[in-house]
Structures are given as structure tokens and as C-alpha cells.
Amino acid sequence: MPTKVEGWKDETYGNEVRERIYEFAEEGWESIPDDEHDAWFERFKWWGLYHQRKGQESYFMMRIGTPNGVLEPGQLEVVADVADEFARGPVDNPEFGGAVCDWTTRQSIQLHWIKLEDIPEIWDRLESVGLSTQQACGDSWRNIVGCPVAGKDKEEFIDAWPVAEQLNETFKGNDEYANLPRKWKVSVTGCSEGCGQGDINDLAFEPAVKLIDGEETKGFNIRVGGGLSRKEPRLARSIDVFVTPEETADIAAACSALFREHGDREDRFNARIKFLVDEWGTEKFRRVLDEEFVDGELRTAGEDLRDEYTYNAGHSHDEDGHADHVGVHEQPDGNYYVGLSVLVGRMAADEVRELAHLADEYGSGEVRLTQRQNIIVTDVDSDRLDAFLDEDLLEYHSPEPGVFMRGSIACTGTEYCSLSIVETKNRMVRYGRWMQDNIDVPEGMTDFHTHLSGCTASCAQPQIADISLRGMKTRKDGEPVEAFDIGLGGGLGENPQFASWVEMRVAADEVPGYIRNLIEFFADAREDGESFREFIARHETETLTGLVEPEETSYTDPFMHNTKMTWYPYAEADDMDASPAPTNDQGDPLPSDD
Amino acid sequence: MVTSIHQLDDGAWVSVNDSREVNVSDLWQLACSDVCDCEPTDFLAEGFVEVSVARGRVKARIAGQCIGCGADGITDWLELGRADPETGAFRSVVPSSVHCPGSHRRLAADE
Fold first, then answer.
1. Most CB atoms closer than 10 Å: which of A87, A154, A238, A502?
2. Domain-ending residue, one of A109, A128, A147
3. Whether B24 and A4 lie within 8 Å, measured CB to CB
């Protein structure tokens, strides 16, 4: 029997939801019938609107999908202005201020505290420069990810940016694929370094070459069924298919139609295509694809480049090409792209506006978002590079950050998210700073990835980090406190590997001490030239458990209490009862029904 | 009135009559649970797997783990609270009281 969500989607979903959002916005929050809240908020997701968590009713997270992370000239300034004007809540975040932009691990943008009444005006502004929130959430084609420097990389195998653009144009707003059983995440990689992270996507186009009619043809091999969510991580699996760049839209349509027809609509926990691939196996998947969804015969896979993949492979970034994209890199046209480290992916609106101006002044105005929550300014004139690097903004959002700042990623957390168990972004900022000040960096270590996720949904991609932190609870002196499960040794590259979970339920204030002790142990016990990931891989999970101890240090954590029980963790009066929500279009509390 | 219940956002919360009432991340004290042998099981709710309602009593099976011993699992049906059949108003049980999944028994008083 289809789920309730499927019933709501059957009634109204996709493009047609937009008109209803306009009507609700015109008439105000209270015009949404009380007994239809759940159905409408589920449908709103398709238009990139996610109702914020309990205690923040009437406020929405708005996600803007930027294919391949590309923001064209003029777009970033509009994002900054929209954030500044519309993404302000009742209380400022003590670390970041009152209006922020979040760069996500899927190269999208998230704004918070959006009021329903403001959405038409925001859409007008975003769409006037070609930005969209369409299908940024919900059960359909999500933002397409890829190597963020596609077309700007001196060593790339094939320029995947036109492919990503074509897929975006084909499938955004396309009613045929608007209502899928669950989200559909697609990655297109054209570089030889693997930084499209195809391994953790539902559908991955990976660079390959194949002899066709006697000619070596560049294109893509297809993998399906990757993903990290819940406690069921999967690497995408090859279905032994090669396509040329011109054929990508057709095969993508076939794969998503297969998912539409055969995905599980009766159990949302089993709906992602990774579970269908588990059930069928790749041979059956290929056979059904071939027989029911493809005209003509599928080609077998070409020769891939996976043995060249270096992205998030545990190497020093000095050894590799564009590595994590942070830093100064020359483009094929002699200009430069400069990747800036944005700790936990969050920038204040005024910083975003300043960056937009700098991108205009020194480059083409284009910027790009990475899957490590960082931002890249492209097309910087070679003769103005030094002046750009001297700009004040780059002192904090640096192209040469410290090892621990560079590698830190965090999801949204209990600040806004219903799923999260713990506070994340402000805590990861504090972790990063403490580690930077208190841990000696072992010789040769230039990259150390700490991914902090508030729950098993894994939005911070914890399973592919050197240190994986997953939100948890424990008791300390008898009192419940926020905590983390700790995993080690995850990453991608030629031999992708999910982290091994080695320490469970570590109190949040003892995590920095654990990491320090572990890195000190590594520095003492490593073999010559051994990377951290190689060191972890050399040990059995049983050996790693208990290798070093978590401990309290000079690090202090203001978020140890149950932040989910607050209406907003940083409010002075943070009890759920103190919440002003729901509010009207001016942010004033609406009268309660009670 | 009929009580409407939904489990939404990947099982992050339970809606009762279109109002978000019960979240993941609470610690539930469980007696006689199948999750582990701890007495009580100190159970972190990580996701609502199934929800049901009968005569206003809202119940769920919850995925999570005991933070005492680390065992994870899915609880038997656990009462989350009651919806008033006249007004629809929901009154939650107190997770930190002791509950017995699969049973109507409550081992400590509700709020």
C-alpha cells in the first residue's frame, strides 16, 4: 500500500504546487488549512522549501540548486541581497550573525528563516538572474553535482559542465520525472581526479574511454545506487554501460524512469535506488534498463580512470592536481581560480556580497561551490592575482587555511533541522579553532578531513572522512549530554572506503581531546611517509577501538544540553515555550489557538 | 474527531493532527524492551519507523539505540501520548518516565 506521502503527491505535486504557494503567500501563513500542513509542507519541498523544525513553525529553509555549483556572473550578489533582506530570524547566531548563506555538500545554497509571505518576491529576484529553487528538495531530480572546476581544469579528461547543464535543462521542471519514489541524486565527473563523488550518488557519470567504430571515444561509464543515508551506506555500482556525452540525457531519462516505475513507493525507508540495486543486483538492473527503458542496445562499459582518482584519497594536496580545490590553481586560459576555505560552509550575507564584488573586480564574476562546502572564484586575471590574494576577506576565508580548518565540514544540525540529534555548525567551528591552536600537525600532513553530521542522514558525508562524527547522546555524571560516534579512515579515491566506527557515544566536550590524542599517536607510530588514512587502513577496527582515549581538555562546549529541546539553541530564553513561532509576515507572534 | 497521524521527514518526527508533537533525539527509559538487557534501556530515539493510533492513543515503533550498552534496534509499539477525541489536543507522555513497549502498562506516571 503506497505511503501517505505518495497519496499527497498523487493529489498535487511538482510544478503545480507553485501556484498554491503563491496563493498561500498572498493570504498569509494562517491560510494553510490546519489539517493540511503536513501534506503541503511535503509538497513545498519540491520547490526547495523545507519547513524548519519544531519551535520554528512558519519559517522555512530555502534551498537554491546551482548545477555543478556554478554561479554565473551577477548571481552571487543577488543571493547575498536576498539573504540579507529575507533570511533573518528572531535571534542572531552568535558565531555568524543574523543573515547567512550556507554552501552545502551538494553544491547548493541554503537560506533560513524564510517567511512564506516573502517567497514570491524572493523567487522574482532569484529567477531574474537565472537562479531557481525548483526541485532543490523533494522526490525528484536534485541539484546535479560534479567537479566544480569543470571547464577550468588544465588536466581534465572531458569538460562535464555542458553535460551537467544539459541534464539540468532536460530534467528540471520535466513532468515525466517530477514524481519519483524518493530523491534522485546525480553526479557528472569529467576530470580524472574523481571529485564529482559519483560513488555516493544514485546515478553517476564517470569519465571513461571506449573504442567505437575504431575510434577512441571519450564519454562516461554509468554507476547506480550509491548513498550514505541512515546506517546503510553504499558505493555506487557499475552497470557495465558506456555512453557518449551526447547520449547522457537519454540514459539518464531511462535510469530515472526505471526508478520511477520500480522504486519502492510503499516504504520510504526502502525507497532509494540503492535498495533496488541491492535487491536486483547490477545484472538485472542492466537487463531491465535495456529491455524496458532504452531504445537500441546498450554498450558495455569503457575503460575508466578510477585508478587515477586522487580526490579525498588521503593524500597530501601538494601531491595532486586540484585536490580539494582550495588554493590557487592555473586555468587552461592562463587565468587562475582561487578556492577559498569556508569553515562549515557558512558565510555572513555581507561577506557574500563582498565576495561577489571581488569576483567581479578580479575575475569574470563567476564563482563555484564545492562539495566540501567551499567557494571558488574563477577567471582571476593573472596580473591581478596578488592583489586579489591581499584582500581582507581572504584573511579569514583563506586559500591557505590551516589543516584542521581546511578539512572541516558540518551539516545544519539542531539549529534548524528536524532530523539532527546534536548542534553541529557552531560546534565544528569551535572544534576547528581548538584543533588549530592545540594540535601539532604531523610532518607532511596537509589535509585532515573532519566531517560532523548531526544524525544518520549523513548530510555532512561523515563516512568518507578521516574523522567521522555522527550525532549521538550519552550520559555524563548521570545527565544526558550531546555526544558523537567516531569513525576513522573513510575516504574516496581509487579505493573508496567507508569509515570504521571505533568509539561510540563520546561526550561532545571530549572529542577534541580524542582527536589530539589520536593524531599524536599517529605521529609517533606511523611508518615513514605513511598518511593518516594509510595508517588507519593498516589497523583492524578492533585495534583502533581504545587505541587512544577521549578526554576533557581546555576545549569548552556550550551546547552540551539537549539543543533539540530548545526552540533555538542560541536564544537567551531558549525553552520551547519561549518561541515566538509561528509568526506573521512581520515576524510578530500569531495568536495561539489554545 | 478522527486523529490524524503522520511520521515525516525520514521518520524525524511524529505529527498528530498536523502538529509536530514528538521528535527524534529524546531519551526514552524502557523497561522490558527487546533492544537489550539493560534495566532500564536508556533508549535514544533516532527515527520513527511506524506510527498508529487507536482511540486517541498514539503509538510508534522507534529505531534507536541504548546509550548504556550500545545495542541498537527497533522497539515494540510504544505509547507516545493521547489525542483528545473531542478537541484533537495532544498530550505527550514523558519520555524520561519508564515505559514498557508492547504493553499498555506504564511503570511511572505521565506528566
1. A87
2. A128
3. no
Is B46 in contact with A421 (Cβ distance < 8 A)?
A: yes
- A388: domain CATH number is 3.30.70.3340
Q: Helix A273-280 to helix A248-262 angle, to the nearest 10 degrees?
A: 80
A38 and chain B in contact, CB less than 8 A: yes
Q: Identify which of A34, A420, A564 has the shortest CB distance to residue B18.
A: A34
Q: Which residues contact A28 (CB under 8 A, 6 or more apart)?
A: A116, A117, A584, A585
The residue of chain B nearest to residue A480, with distances taken between CA atoms, is B27
Q: Are B83 and B89 contacting, i.e. CB atoms less than 8 angstroms apart?
A: yes
Distance (Å, whole) CA A95 – CA A430: 10
Residues A121 and A162 in one domain: no
Record: contact A38-B25, CB cut-off 8 A: no
Same domain, A76 and A102: yes
Round to whole Å and give the CA distance between A69 and B39: 50
B87 CB within 8 Å of a chain A CB: no
* Residue B91 forms contact with A (CB below 8 Å): no
Chains A and B form CB pairs within 8 A to the count of: 72
Q: Determine, yes or no, domain membership for A316.
A: no
Domain presence at residue A281: yes
Facing residue for B9 by CB, picked from A35, A37, A419: A419
Q: Chain B closest CA to A143's CA: distance in Å? A: 19
Pair A409, A557 in one domain: yes
Are residues A160 and A283 located together in one domain of the fold?
yes
Beta bridge partners of A475: A480
Beta strands in A394-441 (DSSP E): 408-410
Cα A502 to chain centroid, rounded: 24
Q: Does B38 touch chain A (CB under 8 A)?
A: no
Domain that holds residue A347: 327-399
Same domain, yes or no, for A167 and A276? yes
| CATH number for the domain that contains residue A124 | 3.90.480.20
Whether residues A166 and A244 fall in one domain: yes
Residue A395 and residue A412 share a domain: no
Residue A371 lies in a domain: yes
Rama region for A107: left / alpha / beta (φ>0; ψ in -120 to 50; rest): left
Whether residue A225 contacts residue A236, with contact meaning beta carbons closer than 8 Å, is answered with yes
Nearest to B13 among A4, A418, A562 (CB): A418
- Domain check: are A524 and A422 in the same one? yes
Domain count, chain A: 4
CB contact under 8 A, B10 and A414: no
Residue among A54, A422, A455 whose CB faces B13 most closely: A54
Per-residue pLDDT of chain A (594 residues), as tens digits, is 888 999 999 999 999 999 999 999 999 999 999 999 999 999 999 999 999 999 999 999 999 999 999 999 999 999 999 999 999 999 999 999 999 999 999 999 999 999 999 999 999 999 999 999 999 999 999 999 999 999 999 889 999 999 999 999 999 999 999 999 999 999 999 999 999 999 999 999 999 999 999 999 999 999 999 999 888 999 999 999 999 999 999 999 999 999 999 999 999 999 999 999 999 999 999 999 999 999 999 999 999 999 999 999 988 876 667 889 999 999 999 999 999 999 999 999 999 999 999 999 999 999 999 999 999 999 999 999 999 999 999 999 999 999 999 999 999 999 999 999 999 999 999 999 999 999 999 999 999 999 999 998 899 999 999 999 999 999 999 999 999 999 999 999 999 999 999 999 999 999 999 999 999 999 999 999 999 999 999 999 999 999 999 999 999 999 998 899 999 999 999 999 999 999 999 999 998 755
